[in-house]
Amino acid sequence: MRHSTLEKCREIIALRQTVLAQARDQIVVTGQAMAQAFANGATLFAFGNGGSTTDAQDLMADLLSPHQPGVRPLPAMALTNDIAVITAVGNDVGFENVFSRQIIAFGRPGDIAFGISTSGNSTNMSMAFKQAKKQNMVTVGLAGYDGGDMARSQAVDHCIVVPSSNIPRIQEAQATVYHALVELVQVLLADE
Question: HSE (CB half, 13 Å, CA atoms) of 102?
Fold first, then answer.
C-alpha cells in the first residue's frame, strides 16, 4: 500500500512537471486572455462530463468565492449544475446539446467558455465550443491523452493538454492547471 501510494505521488509530480514544461507559455497566454475578458465584464461558463463535471463546479466555486482575502469574486457559472436543464435538453433535443443550449441562452460576446475533458472527444463539449465561437466568446479547453478533437478544433482558442492516459492523473494535473489559471487571472486583475 505504501509503495502504491508513493508511486502515484511520483506519477502526478512527474506529470505536473511535464505539463509545466510543455505548456508554460500557453498557460500564461490563456490566463492573460481570461483576465482581459474578465476585465471587460465577462462571465465564465464551465462544463465537463463525469468527473470533469465536478472540476467545472470547483473552478466556478474558486472564481465566485476566492480563498485569498481581498481578492474579488469573478462571475462564473457551471453548466453542469442544473439537472432539470440537463435532463430536459438531453431528453428533448439530445445529450450532445446539453451545454450548447445553455451557451445560446446565457453566453455573450467576450464571455469565456471553459471546457474540461479527460479525452477531449466529447460531442457535447465540441458542440458547446462551436456555439461559443459563433457567439464570439473566448474558448478554453483542458484535455488529456493527446488532446483529442478538442486540441484540433478551430473553435477552441486555448487548449492545454495533459499528456497522459491515466484518468486520475489527468484530472489531478488539470486541477493544478485551472487553479494556476485562477491565480494568474487574479494577479493580472490586481495589477490593473
Answer: 27
pLDDT digit string, tens, across residues 115-132 = 999 999 999 999 999 999
Total count of domains within the chain: 1
Q: What confidence tier does 133 reach under pLDDT thresholds 50, 70, 90?
A: very high
Q: Are 103 and 132 spatial neighbours (Cβ–Cβ below 8 Å)?
A: yes
The answer to whether the CB of 96 falls within 8 A of the CB of 69 is: no
The CATH number covering residue 65 comes to 3.40.50.10490
HEC per residue, the chain: CHHHHHHHHHHHHHHHHHHHHHHHHHHHHHHHHHHHHHHCCCCEEEEECCHHHHHHHHHHHHHHCCCCCCCCCCCEEECCCCHHHHHHHHHHCCHHHCCHHHHHHHCCCCCEEEEECCCCCCHHHHHHHHHHHHCCCEEEEEECCCCHHHHHCCCCCEEEECCCCCHHHHHHHHHHHHHHHHHHHHHHHHHC
CA 135 – CA 33 distance, rounded (Å)? 17
Contact 33, 158 (CB under 8 A): yes
Task: Identify any residues that bridge with 78 across adjacent strands, giving them in sequence order.
Answer: 46
User: What's the Cα-to-Cα distance from 94 to each of 61, 67, 173, rounded to whole Å?
Assistant: 28, 37, 31
**What domain range is 80 assigned to?**
2-191
pTM value is 0.95
